[in-house]
Amino acid sequence: MAALVSCCFGCCEDNNRGHVTLKEMPTVQLDTHHMGTDVVIVKSGKRICGTGGCIANAPLHQNKSYFEFKIQSTGVWGVGVATQKANLNQIPLGRDPHSLVLRQDGTVYHNNEEKNRLPANSLPQEGDIVGVTYDHVELNLYLNGKNMNCPASGIRGTVYPVVYAGTAALVRIEGKMDGAKYCQILEENLLPSARKLSMGRK
C-alpha cells in the first residue's frame, strides 16, 4: 500500500518546492461547443449519440491522466485523445495528426496510420468499460480494468478526451480525469516480480 500512496501523491508533486499539491480534478463532460454538427449530447454531457465526435470540457494538463468510457450499445465508435483541431465531423477519427483513438474494430489509429491493435478476442462489447491512460507521450488502454498492453503515441499539443459515435452506437464518458486512478492502475498492473521488489524496499 505504501508504494501506491507514494505514487498517487507523486503524480501531483510540485517539483519547484518539493511539496505535494492535491487538486480537485475536473468532472469530465462532453463539450457541446466542440462537437460534430450531427452529434447529440445527452445525460448532462455524459453520453454521445448521432454521428460525429466530441471532445471533453477540460484538457489533460496533469502529467498522468486516466478516464473511462462505457460502451452503452455497439456500432461505430471510437475513444481516445484529440486536440481542438481535430475534424469532429469526419469519422472515424484517427485520420489526421490531431487525434489518437481506439476504434470499435480494436485498431488504434493516428494520422491515418494503424499504431497498434487490441489482442485477439478483446474487442469491447456492450456494457464494457474502456479505460484510457495518457502521460503526454503514450496512450494505454484498459478493458474492464485489465491492461490491454496496447500502447500508442504520436499526437502532440494540448489534448482532450475524445469520443465519436456512428451507426447505432451509444457511448458514455465516466468519472473524472484522475491522476490517482492512473497510479492505482499502474500499481495493479505491475509484474508480480516488480511488485515484490517494490514491497521489499526499505
Could you characterize the architecture of this molecule?
The protein has 202 residues and is mostly beta strands. Helix content is 14%, strand content 40%. It is built from three helices and 16 strands. Strands 3, 4, 5, 6, 7, 8, 9, 10, 11, 12, 13, 14, 15 and 16 form a 14-stranded antiparallel sheet that branches. The protein has a two-stranded antiparallel ribbon with strand order 1-2. A hairpin with a 4-residue loop joins strand 1 (13-14) and strand 2. The radius of gyration is 17 Å and the shape is globular. The model is unreliable at 1-23 and 189-202 (pLDDT under 50).
Q: Approximately how much helix is present in the residues?
A: 10-25%
Q: What is the 3D form?
A: globular
Helix count? 3
* Major sheet description: 14 strands, antiparallel
Rounded to the nearest angstrom, the distance between the terminal CA atoms is 14 Å
β content, as a range?
Answer: 35-45%
Rg of Cα set = 17 Å
Structural class: mainly beta
Oligomerization state of this entry?
Answer: single chain
Q: Average pLDDT across residues? A: 79
Number of strands: 16
**What is the succession of H and E elements?**
HEEEEEEEEEEEEEEEEHH
Low-confidence stretches: 1-23, 189-202
Domain B30.2/SPRY: 1-182
Organism: Cyprinus carpio carpio
Pfam families: SPRY
InterPro entries: B30.2/SPRY, B30.2/SPRY_sf, ConA-like_dom_sf, SPRY_dom, SPRYD7
